[in-house]
């Protein structure tokens, strides 16, 4: 199912890898990197970016190569993996479990509220 949101470090723009891309005027690569984080989160890929998704994140193989060279992506069969995904983002499995717990908690709360409402009538 994927995530509804992803984490982006507030010091992202100070990261040496990003600064290197800025210095080289590789703005499209930076945009593609941020879009790849959102895309991977939305689609529950745990940081994997398939080659077929490049156009969805407004990137070409050139930007992909720039991100690999900068160390923000790593090559993986059929695509790339976002560096540090497991360290900074919640896994799709953990997000699914969190949603299930929240749903169960919401159902339990609704039942209690309904029972309480019936008793007060």
Give the gist of this structure.
With 121 residues, the protein is mainly alpha-helical. It has helices spanning 16-23, 27-43, 61-70, 85-88, 92-119, and strands spanning 48-50, 73-76, 79-82. It folds into 2 domains: 1-90; 91-121.
Q: Would you write up a description of this structure?
A:
The chain is built from five helices and three strands; from the N terminus they run ααβαββαα. By secondary structure, it is mostly helical. It folds into two domains: 1-90; 91-121. The chain has a three-stranded antiparallel β-sheet with strand order 1-3-2. A hairpin with a 2-residue loop joins strand 2 and strand 3. Helix 2 packs across helix 3. The chain is elongated.
Coarse structural class: mainly alpha
Strand proportion: 5-15%
General form:
elongated
Major β-sheet profile: 3 strands, antiparallel
Count of separate DSSP helical elements = 5
Computed CA radius of gyration, to the nearest angstrom: 20 Å
| Order of strands, widest sheet | 1-3-2
- How much is the average pLDDT? 87
Tell me the number of structural domains: 2
């Amino acid at each position: 199912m994927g995530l509804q949101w992803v984490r982006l470090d507030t010091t992202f723009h100070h990261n040496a890898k990003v600064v290197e891309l800025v210095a080289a005027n590789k703005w499209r690569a930076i945009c593609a990197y941020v879009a790849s984080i959102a895309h991977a989160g939305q689609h529950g890929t745990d940081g994997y970016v398939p080659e077929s998704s490049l156009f969805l994140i407004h990137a070409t193989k050139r930007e992909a190569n720039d991100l690999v060279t900068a160390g923000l992506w790593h090559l993986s069969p059929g695509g790339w993996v976002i560096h540090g995904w497991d360290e900074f983002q919640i896994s799709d499995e953990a997000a699914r479990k969190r949603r299930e717990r929240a749903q169960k908690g919401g159902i339990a709360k609704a039942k209690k509220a309904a029972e309480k409402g019936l008793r007060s009538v």
